[in-house]
Design goal:
Blueprint (H helix, E strand, L loop, with lengths): L2 E4 L3 E4 L4 E9 L1 H4 L9 E2 L10 H19 L9 E5 L6 H10 L3 E3 L6 H14 L5 E8 L1 H8 L15 E2 L2 E8 L8 E7 L14 H20 L8 E4 L3 H14 L9 E3 H4 L12 E2 L1 H18 L4 E9 L3 H5 L6 E9 L12
Parallel strand pairs: 3-4, 5-6, 5-7, 8-13, 11-12, 11-14
Antiparallel strand pairs: 1-2, 2-10, 3-9, 3-10, 7-9, 10-15, 14-15
Helix pairs in contact: 2-3, 6-7
């Protein structure tokens, strides 16, 4: 058996599936942020030349997937599986994109954890010999998410300081066992998270709802692999924003596994300038971690600037119905360990 389970939640991937294609398509506000020059494409039109915001999100999703496949030296018909999702009911962005692409489709809903979830499952498919090439993708759109989860844009509701700004963007990653293009990174381990719910009910405080799940997954990964935070150049969470970032730091200190400032950051803090862009606690949405990973992190792994990182996207497993019925907000976090192709095999900490 190619893969090897380590502990309860982590799987080591002996074939080290290669990331050989990446793409990040973003909206106007994202293009005005600190990472604006790193995206493959920035649209200045929230409708992306479509009739509705939902169709705009789908087109961003499609374009990102096609770009990632091209950059990986492949064609859509050569890809065995598309794994992905989004935030909309019945993951319509991903499903309708799969209809247009004709690639066998595995639809995923992990809320904002979807990018890491798709990479984890896609890597396991490759490591198990069930495919040679898969593409993983996730997207979100500020206007579609607001319409579904909160208020019509025309309502102009004020957002509390704990709220986050849903990223308009789509990210896609091509994984292969036989890459035809330069390798950006290798997936060496995946850690599938558990659902954790500490009773947060405030739908405008996603960071607090997701941070406990992030801590749970990180602790499981460190325990299973016998590693420490200092063994990684970077620990990158998905979209906890400032509130969730600070809470995760606190939770990890309480578990005597503190995250050093120089080793930990969050995609929701990287994508916007909180001082000038009025995003309150930071960025969120499936597209947040997807575009930051593909635009900003993978090139740094390819260059060797980063040698080994944990990419862990977090999700709030809520719905409009559950919120209206007073349910709390369960959290989930999935993690993948990515290594630079120049890093070689890095040994685990001995028992």
């Amino acid at each position: 058996m190619a893969g090897m389970r380590i502990g309860m939640q982590t799987i080591a991937l002996s074939t080290r599936p290669a990331i050989c294609g990446n793409a990040a398509y973003a909206g106007k506000k994202e293009g005005e942020g600190p990472l604006g020059t790193e995206f493959d494409f920035v649209t200045q039109d929230e409708l992306y030349h479509q009739d509705t915001f939902e169709l705009a999100e789908k087109q961003l999703y499609l374009d990102a997937i096609r770009k990632a496949i091209r950059k990986g030296g492949a064609k859509p018909e050569e890809v065995q599986f598309l794994l992905g999702g989004d935030l909309l009911n019945q993951i319509i962005t991903a499903s309708f994109s799969a209809r247009d692409l004709g690639i066998p489709f595995i639809g995923l809903y992990g809320a904002c954890s979807t990018m890491a979830e798709s990479l984890a499952l896609g890597s396991m498919l490759l490591d198990g010999g069930h495919a040679e090439q898969v593409v993983c993708a996730a997207s979100s759109h500020f206007c579609t998410a607001e319409r579904q989860y909160r208020y019509p844009l025309e309502f102009g509701a004020q957002r509390p300081p704990t709220s986050q700004w849903t990223v308009t963007g789509a990210g896609a990653t091509l994984l292969s066992t036989e890459p035809k293009a330069p390798v950006l990174a290798n997936v060496t381990q995946v850690c599938m998270g558990r659902v954790v719910d500490l009773g947060i009910t405030d739908a405008n405080n996603m960071g607090a709802a997701m941070a406990p799940a992030a801590a749970d997954t990180l602790l499981a990964l460190f325990s299973d692999t016998r590693t420490m935070p200092e063994d990684y150049d970077l620990i990158l969470t998905g979209d906890l924003g400032q509130i969730g970032h600070d809470l995760l730091m606190q939770l990890m200190r309480e578990q005597r596994m503190p995250l050093p400032d120089e080793h930990y950051t969050d995609c929701g803090l990287l994508i916007y300038d909180r001082e000038t862009q009025d995003v309150h606690a930071g960025g969120s949405g499936c597209g947040c971690s997807a575009v930051v990973l593909n635009a900003h992190i993978l090139p740094r792994l390819q260059s060797g600037q980063l040698r080994r990182i944990i990419f862990m996207a977090t999700g709030a497993l809520m719905s409009l119905t559950s919120s209206q019925q007073g349910e709390s907000i369960p959290g989930i976090a999935h993690a993948v360990v990515l290594e630079s192709p120049a890093a070689g095999t890095l040994p685990l900490r001995p028992a």
